[in-house]
Design brief:
By secondary structure, this protein is an all-alpha fold. It has one domain. The chain contains four helices and no strands. The longest helix is centred in the middle third of the chain and has 23 residues.
Length: 122
């Protein structure tokens, strides 16, 4: 027995179609004279994939904490690649802080504490 799950669409299209469109637009722009380096094109595609991945995860999963952490892990190097001046230590500290903050905000409200058992009367 085979089962199929419905395709996850972003604005009516699959995420791979949006990635292909962005890639084609970058090629078209560079063909017609816009100076976009290969590194910048890679960063743009990485950012697009991170955003599209987050959109898909939000529509599929109940808990988006792992996806948000992945976006942070992708986003910090991307903003550094675009010129934010952070040392490796600062990047690591920022990643740790944001991961903890996301865990606090995203996980804690979804966790229900166990009911404490009544104390035995001795």
């Amino acid at each position: 027995m085979t089962t199929t799950s419905p395709a996850r669409l972003v604005f009516g299209r699959e995420p791979a179609a949006w990635t292909a469109l962005i890639s084609a637009a970058l090629v078209l722009l560079t063909t017609f004279g816009f100076s976009i380096s290969t590194d910048t094109q890679g960063v743009i595609l990485a950012a697009a994939n991170a955003i599209l991945g987050l959109v898909v995860v939000i529509t599929v999963r109940e808990s988006i904490y792992p996806a948000l952490v992945a976006v942070v892990q992708t986003g910090i190097p991307l903003v550094v690649a675009f010129g934010l001046d952070l040392t490796t230590e600062q990047q690591g500290a920022l990643l740790a802080l944001l991961t903890i903050a996301l865990g606090f905000v995203g996980t804690r409200p979804q966790v229900t504490p166990k009911a404490s058992e009544p104390a035995s009367a001795e």
